[in-house]
Specification:
Shape: elongated
Helix content: over 70%
Distance between the termini: 40 Å
InterPro entries: COBRA1 (IPR010405)
Number of helices: 11
Strand content: under 5%
GO biological process, one term: negative regulation of transcription elongation by RNA polymerase II
Pfam families: COBRA1
Length: 176
């Protein structure tokens, strides 16, 4: 799963571990390594004028930056999920088209926990999921189990064995 996550990052405009490792292994000189780290931070950091003073204040209160970034990522994820939900409720052709475009951009990011809710909500809001995505979901049991019922229903139409597997325990319990 870790290599799949790295590949997911490398296929998007995000710097993954491979690109960072490549830039750091180009040289052995300390100054060049420090410059490479500084360049990476500058290119991939949050660009806000008000952020450095806020980070200093958080440092004074001994709040870890990791916690700040995790909370920011969670908040952004919640806003994106809410926007996807709005698009799905709209139901217009343009909204569906936007949802399909969004799914194309984020589908490979499912292994990353921060992106899972976005991918799952996107799948849930699409009335008809393209077959290539359904095939990928059927090939990954964890992904299939995490999918909402509306997505699983579309999978069951293509794969009767998964339908039987999902409902046979309920039927057996009812018959007893």
């Amino acid at each position: 799963m870790a290599s799949g996550t790295a590949k997911s990052l490398e296929n998007h405009p995000l710097l993954g571990a491979a690109k960072l490792r490549q830039s750091l292994t180009k040289t052995r000189k300390l100054n060049t390594l420090l410059n490479a780290v500084k360049k990476f931070q500058d290119e991939n950091g949050i660009k806000m004028d008000t952020l450095p003073p806020a980070l200093q204040l958080l440092d004074l209160h001994k709040i870890k930056r990791h916690d700040l970034y995790e909370q920011a990522a969670m908040d952004i994820s919640e806003h994106v999920v809410a926007r996807i939900r709005e698009l799905g409720e709209n139901g217009s052709f343009e909204s569906i088209k936007k949802l399909e475009e969004q799914l194309e951009k984020c589908f490979d990011m499912f292994p990353l926990p921060q992106f899972r809710p976005i991918v799952l909500e996107n799948l849930k809001q699409l009335p008809k999921i393209p077959d290539n995505y359904l095939d990928t979901i059927m090939g990954d049991r964890d992904f299939y189990d995490a999918c909402p019922l509306t997505v699983q229903q579309q999978i069951w139409l293509r794969n009767n064995d998964l339908f039987v597997e999902a409902f046979s325990p309920l039927i057996e319990c009812y018959l007893k």
